[in-house]
């Protein structure tokens, strides 16, 4: 067991403002909270890697299994489609059965999906490999929303106030590390069609490890003693009442629509990146590098930004500034991606897109909880994710539909055998949507930090009670 949950930043920040007072009231943090975070992060990383493992080598996969580009896109798109209804169910499950059983169930589904989709690559003759690939991806898709918004719940239940944003950042950014793994690992492993079985087998390993750790190492959904006053006096609304409160919360709806739209745009960007760049002669390895830099700079930015926000509590300012800068860089990508020979510019743009855009994801998740308290963390973060997945599905379908086959000769490196696509209109639309969402968020989102206010009220009440306790007379 660790020491008492101290560490509020400044007076009135919450019951954790005084370590001695927190220890006196029974607020404690436990070392195994980091084990829980590790398991959830590994599961999140594995699930994200499985999501986009086909995208960086879409052309080779399509040729090997005799599939169209549209079918390959659906192997990524199915994550977004399935996660919309399953996300609503996941919100209820997380608040009903608890974080432990929800995590274990997700780990087994993720492992089963990773195994099922590898079956077409075995020596056994399979008539319809697409059905197995899609079936495996669908099982993994059932897990995605749960593991994406679970870090907010874990941070609230197991971590003290001054570590919540950082813990949420670690759990949330592990999803991005999984995407990084897919962008680096798939092009590295798959040089020829014969390498595909090897790739599918490799992705089973982290899924199996997450399943083993979740089953063997997670013992409780909540710690024996709460880490903070809010965790101790949990007033989270019931599932349906919580959803009603969210829908009537103007600030939350604005954040959910705008930030959910941003999640959707990032999903479309990552799913289609290789197909967009190969038209202009860029290799799949270069597309993987661009995706990797997007993730790396996003994770680094999230680390620095989360530590800063944990200290200052400037959630709104961080999200608004990051989103506005993201829209500018997104416009730059839409223009430069349609030019040949701009490797340095594209590398820089993708890095900045991650630094400004991806880094604010955990901050926005915490902001969703702050502006919607006392609605449960699972519902507040989950509804944003579900909306983002819905927008992501629409974005991928719309961008793909707006692309057209090019008739003139080109320097395309695409290997689907159907001729390159023209993505100009699609990329401009993506940039326009990003700019629209950022403007709406900047102009119309205003909120109080309800959870921090509740912690401050508890702190003042506890301190007042302590001041009223008669002090023992001094002995002569």
Q: Structural class, from helix and strand content? A: mainly alpha
Q: Largest sheet, described in full?
A: 2 strands, antiparallel
Number of strands: 2
- Tell me the strand order in the biggest sheet: 1-2
Beta-strand residue fraction: under 5%
The unreliable regions are 1-21
Oligomerization category of the chains in this entry? single chain
- Average pLDDT works out at 81
Count of helical segments?
19
How do the helices and strands follow one another from N- to C-terminus? HHHHHHHHHHHHHHHHHEEHH
Structural shape: globular
Radius of gyration: 23 Å
**Helix proportion:** over 70%
End-to-end Cα distance:
39 Å
Fold and architecture overview:
This protein is mainly alpha-helical. It has 19 helices and 2 strands. A two-stranded antiparallel ribbon has the order 1-2. α5 runs antiparallel to α6. The relative contact order is 0.15.
Features of this protein?
single chain, 476 residues, mainly alpha, 72% helix, disordered N terminus
